[in-house]
Structures
1.
Amino acid sequence: MKISVVKNILEANDRIAQENRAIFDQKGLTVFNLMSSPGAGKTSLLEKTIDALKDQVKLGVIEGDIQSSQDAERIAQKGIPVVQINTGGACHLDGNMIRDTFKEFNFDDLDLLVVENVGNLVCPAEFKVGEDFKAMILSVTEGEDKPTKYPLMFHESKVLIINKIDLLPYLDVSLETIKKEALKVNPHLTIFEVSCKTGQGLDAWYDWLKEQVKTGRPA
Amino acid sequence: MKISVVKNILEANDRIAQENRAIFDQKGLTVFNLMSSPGAGKTSLLEKTIDALKDQVKLGVIEGDIQSSQDAERIAQKGIPVVQINTGGACHLDGNMIRDTFKEFNFDDLDLLVVENVGNLVCPAEFKVGEDFKAMILSVTEGEDKPTKYPLMFHESKVLIINKIDLLPYLDVSLETIKKEALKVNPHLTIFEVSCKTGQGLDAWYDWLKEQVKTGRPA
């Protein structure tokens, strides 16, 4: 019975996510869902990405946190539209929470909407929000075994951004092993190796992301 | 309705956790529930702790993972009883899962049972398993804002082990700020600052943990 409750919740969420997606498509808006463990660098990557792209791409951000609005405040300093969702304990964002933010945005004035999920390597991967694709960050400090131990997020993501590579000299961790393990779980992953601290590797991510933004809005 | 389902699940779990606890108490067994984000160092801390204490304290371990048995294999190499729980997707351990392992242990031959939870800074804090106390690890690489953003786990834990302090010279993170923020959420936290890699700070943790082990088993 517990399983059927969970299944019903996921199916209801999928329907809402599809409706969100239809609205995003109608507005010609590209949306991605950014997920990771706590502290892997989601907000830092967003800050860097906004600085790099904001003259070329009209960006908006939805910040998901259990409580607090620190991340939304960091993003707001960049001068782009940002809406905070506080889940009040819930471990992930869902389609309804995203829907509730629509009234706060003017989608006609955006090209790219980023949904920064709650920091959690498990639950957010189960809940679609209407995104075009999911992107995940893994910090090299988390170790080599994460793809095997938390496979769903690696499986669901289109992109894996391996962050904090500036720390590799001080860790007993191999970047090659991380990539090999991730590709075992999902051979289709596009992988970027970056340091949000030093900026290393970020240009390739910016270029790739710009290519994902939908061209040709509907009239 | 969704909320009442969650409430019913939590209440049912609390009852089972209480029953587990009664069994642990009857056997004079000390139990703690070890929680953290993925890759913060739960298994590494356990390996070090087993090496340090196994001649003085009879230890057993329950390993919780979504899938895979890598951690249980690491612990088994230490020659102590270990049981793997694979949650099959679930983001935390609960009382029933712990109950299901009892047949695998001889509790009369144990002093201390450690439950290593699924790597997740959110959900495990909501589910009691019958433990005497909860302990959490935070890696300094996760940043200073985690107590504010994930308060429940800090609130529910008796002990905070701050790990990977050997990396502090390479991070823009202050140990003092982490401690200050954690104590704002829970002023009763006992805090240890350690590096499982270098061994720094671990002796204080071992001494404290030995003091927690129940003395005087029932006849």
2.
Amino acid sequence: MSHTFALDKSCPETGARAGLITTSRGAVPTPAFLPVGSQAAVKALGPDEVRAAGASIILANTYHLHLRPGVGVIEKVGGLHRFMSWPGPILTDSGGYQVFSLARLCRTADEGVTFRSHVDGSEHFLTPEMVIQLQERLGSDIIMPLDECPPYCQEPELIREAVRRTHVWAERSRLARRRDDQALYGIVQGGAFPELRRQSAEFLASLGFDGYAIGGVSLGEPKQVMFSTIEETVGWLPEDRPRYLMGVGSPEDILEAVARGVDLFDSALPTRTARNGALFTASGRRNIQNACYRDRDEPLDRDCGCYTCRHFSAAYLHHLFRSRELLAYRLATIHNLTFVLGLMRRIREAILDGRFAALKRAFLAEYRTTDEETRLVQKQKWLSSRTEPESLAPFV
Amino acid sequence: MSHTFALDKSCPETGARAGLITTSRGAVPTPAFLPVGSQAAVKALGPDEVRAAGASIILANTYHLHLRPGVGVIEKVGGLHRFMSWPGPILTDSGGYQVFSLARLCRTADEGVTFRSHVDGSEHFLTPEMVIQLQERLGSDIIMPLDECPPYCQEPELIREAVRRTHVWAERSRLARRRDDQALYGIVQGGAFPELRRQSAEFLASLGFDGYAIGGVSLGEPKQVMFSTIEETVGWLPEDRPRYLMGVGSPEDILEAVARGVDLFDSALPTRTARNGALFTASGRRNIQNACYRDRDEPLDRDCGCYTCRHFSAAYLHHLFRSRELLAYRLATIHNLTFVLGLMRRIREAILDGRFAALKRAFLAEYRTTDEETRLVQKQKWLSSRTEPESLAPFV
């Protein structure tokens, strides 16, 4: 087994834990955040910049890469790491979430799922076995099984059926594996229903995976629902395997989830908000396009050591955004990723030093979050905008 | 005088010359190419990347910066160099060309020019004196006077009038200067009329400028017309001052112009074509979006040492362009600028070694240029697309 997970320390006051995932391509100190590079690129950044921002592992997406450029192309040029010039660990998502949210879904059956590509409308059919095979050909380090990820809903029967099928697919995914040098995680579903979450976690744990993901969250549900879902899931997962919360990436959510025992996160939020000019600071998100930054002759964040804050004033960033200069998106992305990855490092150090609870309190006392109502409206807006044709939303 | 120009060597077979401009912010070995950063950013690149590509001096634009963010903002944050984090020499164009091509022109009189901003339609009035003052406040190292730059036309009376006004403005620009630490160049106009070019060059030379620019070229005229215009202008300019051909930047044109005694070039062509996926190689421009690059597991240009070619395959670049990933525009821009700036270095070395004519022959024998008819069609298309509202053409 080329993958291991060692727990270094647990927090005495919360469920937080510090650990270390080792892969043949490098170690991942946890809790860790995975920058999202769905199409084999973290939007606007080169791999060296992703590394410099503090990333030890990144995420790519099987759905996106299958549709474009095609896994055959990536295989031919030596695999995903070489293709994107990122020698470190890569986790590939199965694309389950994308099939059920981004593509036009045609049919879901136990055999597999039929959908139309969001890129060109072409019809595709994927089985759990095919999704494993695609990821084995991509050569990523951690792979995910195809899962059924329904939208947030209150209908237990729909969610129960999705859990059943996710379990069938999880079993088949395990059997479909041909390579033993990749870690395979199981994905827990179950919506906001504690009993279904327990069943899903227990069933997957009984099969035995290298790690466990909590899927079906961050789909527009209230935050408190997400937090209780995490609690109701984590309790049934084995202690000695990494726990990965899919699609969560705001600083405040990361802290809450770490406190509940989560080890891994991925989310496009830091990079997407960056391209919209929303930049993280210790006191909350700032919109760099606001008039107050027009002639501000200091970095956006004086405490930040990122390339952007070391070299450019808030006035310059403001100008680049107002002028829609491409450099804007890159500088903002560097800043937001550095902020989130720096937070992960501080979280880990705090857990090791036995002061995580204090760090969490201090951070959240200073960090002003978007109010819940506004947040839910924004989230819904984003979820529906994703299915627009690409050409209309190149920066989203 | 903080600016000097020293001629190191002249080509025995052509008019090519190697020299050195010194400014208080660094030296510029000539012949030199200035990457275009109209809005205080070379599109898609950070200043360190522009430097790494081989630039010693860049161009910014008074018209653009006056409209946005406003020269007052840049002044307040410590001047243009600090604003954009580029400590080396900067040449600012006066904006004459932009006023007469990009803005909606309202009135031109000897007093000055009234136009509407291409950004927000607001009305502005600029005199030659104001344009000098704006550049003194920006703090650039080489400044340009306001000139009247009519479109390419065959009507001598129109061009004669533009030359007359350009001369009046040139005289007033000299008198308007308050700083003595910036070089001021004169701009020769005269269209495709040898006699007007001679008059313009002689008149400006009699006033005495720190350098001389050839304006009113690369406006859609046939290449042979441009080359003869250069010849008919250069002959009347003083030997001991830099000669700057405005708006020219294709490799083949640079070689021809250097052979005719030009020392400085600026053009958005290498960066703009890069964002369209047209990449320079020794054998000509290649369109990276062509299907032949889909699975090509080698750099676009094996002979190129740029960051892009050292780290990424043509297949990856192809994928980034097809997927409209922001990283595409940056990697392509790095490559094209490195190519052009590398060509400038090779040109200079060849002149110093007395083998420029051989380099020019060898380069042009291998480099396949766009045929003249296609080129003129593309140029016209671009000239008219420039006046479209910004929102429709963010990448152009």
